[in-house]
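Case study 2.
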Amino acid sequence: MYKISKQFAFSAAHSLHGLPDDHPCTRLHGHNYVVTVHLRSKELNETGFVKDYNELKIVKQYIDEHIDHRNLNDIMHPLNSSAENLARMFFDIFKPMLPELYAVEVSETPKTSAIYEPDGQ
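Prediction:
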């Protein structure tokens, strides 16, 4: 199995609901997010790639046009704008365009990340 990944960055604000009122994440705050798309294939294409990294510009384009410098609560409502839900949202958006996609990782800080990888992938 061959695997590749590529990272994309954006900044956005959000607040999380369902937490105790004194939890800091209930207040509007922002992160410099990093999204990593993970692709894999049993075989390489005729060029010797899982996927040409240039073909992943659709991810950057989507993030730049729809996510960057926005309030994620407006985009993801009624879901909570957690890193876990973001990872799933990005997977669902990009899987139809990138059949090799098997997981999406979302990091809110350099020390934390959430990964969405469906069962059976």
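The chain has three helices and four strands.
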